[in-house]
TrEMBL record, chains A, B:
Protein name: Histidine--tRNA ligase
Aminoacyl-transfer RNA synthetases class-II family profile domain residues: 113-363
A GO CC term assigned to this protein in UniProt: cytoplasm
Stored PROSITE patterns: AA_TRNA_LIGASE_II
NCBIfam families listed in its UniProt record: hisS
Region of interest called Disordered, as start-end residue ranges on this chain: 425-471
GO molecular function, one term: ATP binding
Enzyme nomenclature, EC number: 6.1.1.21
Superkingdom of origin organism: Bacteria
Family: Belongs to the class-II aminoacyl-tRNA synthetase family.
Reaction it catalyzes: tRNA(His) + L-histidine + ATP = L-histidyl-tRNA(His) + AMP + diphosphate + H(+)
Family matches, as Gene3D superfamilies: Anticodon-binding domain, Bira Bifunctional Protein, Domain 2
């Protein structure tokens, strides 16, 4: 008996992953552990419907191509061909858009700041040939205020996520932070025009993909900065560090004499306050990384990306930031800060690389053998007694030879086989891993090791060299 | 401070229910409890993708009108207008169709009998004006064999579901069973032709809706039975009971002298074996009810429906049966037996009728007050210490006056407010329900009652008269 096979199920539709039972044990354990951490920090769980009106989904034009539209197979033809986006429904492609709508819908009854987590599948109508997931789990936490939201939530959100990820049996994840105000204030300090800021952010965001020279070229040729401005933007983008004052000084030094814009100083105050609190509460969890820009998104201050050790090629495994103006109902504005894991993508990598093992694919701790079909009721009684005591038990499907029943347990990774006593003899239980068999009573028996009660996840040591943990 | 408000969230789309945090606490607690029971009985959890090819979904023509089709908003026009059902994708409308496909896809690696539970949302493209749910949770358990599946699983499946439902804070649910072989064998015994059997089942299935006289009329006028045959079918349909031999005798007596067909005797052996085992393991949980027919479905033997005390008008809250021929891959056949709860419908009723209360809508047990923003770090340390010890804690959003911070906790139902000590004084914690305040240390404090650690569900006594539990 070895640990259960963790691999994807056969699925004839590309982009719609499914797991065999062992993989699902891992996925469920990840979800349960994430939930546990979020709840310890006072986050409420909510779920939103899977569909939103198309108009809601396409508010930001960038994502419209990813939407799956719905139509009723036997609908009225007028409905079906409707192109009125307020009537058409689509599947949500993230959890931020529906959460924002939920907050506005229920603003009158929710209590703010509202801390919520949300773990649901999302769908993206990607082109099949790109080999991306078209259905996957996202795991989001957000804190939303009514009118205002204190800066300390910009610290709380990544620290909670860091704690949640650290509790999973995966390689360490480091959260990289920057601040839009630092970047934009820095650019303005070196004379980049307000109309160019978003474009500069968009180009700098490609640094890891296309390299420094290509970024500099594009800044000059496409965005229209000077070569000196492009060089300054690249100096900023190379700054990383955990020590607040060192980061502040490095950013100011990168100005090379230009006077710091007020927005830059505000941003640096926010960023250093975050680093300071993060360093105190979870040393090493968070690092400033001034190249993080989060493209064209709606972020207004702090931004997050996160990288798993040994899987940097996977890109950011969890991302987010502060959005001061995301939700509004006309009268009230709801600023928020949040972070989101692409769980299916993370899990898929963890399992494909064999980084996690699971002790068995079934919840069952004990298989109760059946002596013969006439005595099945005795086996049922044993199993029911164990279950009442919180021990997962199954009864053999047929009264086959005991050797075959033991094989049934072994094939599934069930550690114990229970033999009901016959003719006045007592029951006994066998640990089929060690072969050890001992007398037992269903009312009192427990496995020596509580870990045998449920499937256990184990991180698998990889061949990666130990880097000594300095960083 | 009273218990949290359990009511639906505002949702602008009819048929797509959403819950406020308190309602979600109840839904999540139901799901967790159901999972716990299923896992104690050795059922594996799986999830399948939300979509299936249209051809898979419409194999049984009856349900085709309920399918939501998907199309990519910006797909190639040829794809979008495709009417090839093997290319088109739709959302699953139940969990049986995708589970069957999953079993066939993975038959080479699954171990049989395969016991699985599955808790997922399903979608039905109902006409909006019908006011039905178009998105809802289904909760299924099934056992599937490879080639053969012993009859004892027909007992196990409803008993597990009965145990799972009994662990929820809802009125008692009784599972009603019948057997297709009993009904069909009985009809054949009184001379109803084989070609009429399915039609007779379909008409008898309407008994509760249209009444005995209308059923008799329809059997004679539409199906073409004799008046005597219709009367016999109605005699069978009125039989209920828990005592195996009494049920057998009542069925045979209802033949009024006709010779019992072999299929009837086989069916009675199956039904009485089920009643016998059920009576032994969970007295009162299961009752024979010979009018249960399950319409035109694919069932081949045992069938189940279930009714919640005081909510019989809701119809069956969980249904299923044995299907000997549901799944096949050409070479192998996979017989199964299963039962499914429409969880959202059940929950919606339970909450609408106020049958369950929840002690609070947030996971938080302790709100740590903040003396002033300069000392927020001290409050963070208290909260982190409590969390490490498994106690959910939140820190006040602002250093408002303590009265306002206590109000913040009260509004959310958080039972304890923690005051960090200032100037060498120790910390103290206040139970804001009793007003009692005592010194406390974050490293050692626990609430006197562990029930305060998490939101608690409580069944609410209704005004229904106590019927004495006889049934």
């Amino acid at each position: 008996m070895s640990s259960a096979q963790v691999r994807p199920a056969q699925s004839s539709l590309s982009g719609f992953p499914e797991w065999l039972p062992a993989g699902r044990v891992v996925e469920q354990a990840f979800i349960d552990q994430l939930r546990r951490t979020f709840e310890l920090h006072g986050f409420c769980g909510i779920e939103t419907r899977a569909v939103e009106p198309l108009a809601q989904l396409t508010k930001k034009g960038e994502t419209s191509k990813e939407v799956y539209l719905l139509s009723r197979l036997q609908a009225d033809p007028r409905d079906r061909d409707s192109t009125d986006p307020s009537k058409q429904l689509g599947l949500h492609f993230d959890l931020t858009v529906p959460f924002t709508r939920y907050v506005v819908d229920n603003a009158g009854v929710l209590t703010f700041p509202f801390k919520r987590y949300q773990i649901q599948k999302v769908w993206r109508g990607e082109r099949p040939q790109e080999g991306r997931f078209r259905e996957f789990y996202q795991v989001d936490i957000d804190v939303v205020g009514d009118g205002a939201l204190p800066l300390h939530y910009d610290v709380e959100v990544p620290l909670v996520m860091s704690e949640a990820l650290a509790a999973l049996p995966i390689p360490p994840v480091t959260i990289h932070v920057s601040n839009r105000k630092v970047a934009q204030g820095f650019y303005q300090s070196v004379g980049i025009g307000e109309d160019q800021l978003i474009e500069v952010l968009r180009v700098v965001d490609k640094l890891d993909k296309i390299g420094a020279q290509a970024v500099a070229d594009e800044l000059v040729s496409t965005v229209g900065t000077t070569a000196q401005q492009a060089a300054a933007a690249l100096r900023l983008a190379t700054i990383t560090g955990q020590e607040p004052e060192a980061v502040r000084e490095a950013v100011l030094a990168a100005l090379e004499g230009a006077a710091p814009h007020e927005l830059l100083l505000t941003g640096l105050d926010e960023l250093t306050a975050l680093l300071d609190a993060a360093h105190r509460r979870r040393p090493g969890a968070i690092i400033a990384d001034l190249k993080i820009a989060r493209g064209l998104d709606y972020y207004t201050g702090t931004v997050y990306e996160s990288f798993m050790a040994g899987a940097e090629d996977l890109g950011s495994v969890c991302s987010g930031g502060r959005f001061d103006n995301l939700a509004t109902n006309g009268k009230r504005t709801f600023p928020g800060v949040g972070i989101s894991i692409g769980l299916s993508r993370l899990l898929s990598r963890v399992l494909a690389d064999g980084l996690v093992e699971v002790s068995r694919a079934v919840p069952t701790a004990v298989l109760v053998a059946v002596t013969d079909e006439e005595h099945r009721a005795a086996s049922d009684t044993v199993a029911d007694t164990l279950r009442r005591r919180g021990i997962s038990a199954d009864v053999a499907p047929t009264a086959a030879k005991f050797g075959k029943q033991i094989k049934f347990a072994d094939k599934r990774g069930i550690p114990f086989v229970w033999f009901p006593g016959a003719d006045g003899e007592g029951d006994s239980v066998k640990d089929i891993r060690s072969g050890e068999q001992s007398p037992a009573e269903a009312e009192t028996w427990r496995p020596a090791d509580d870990a045998d009660l449920t499937p256990q996840l184990q991180p698998v040591a990889t061949a990666e060299p130990d880097t000594g943990g300095q960083g």
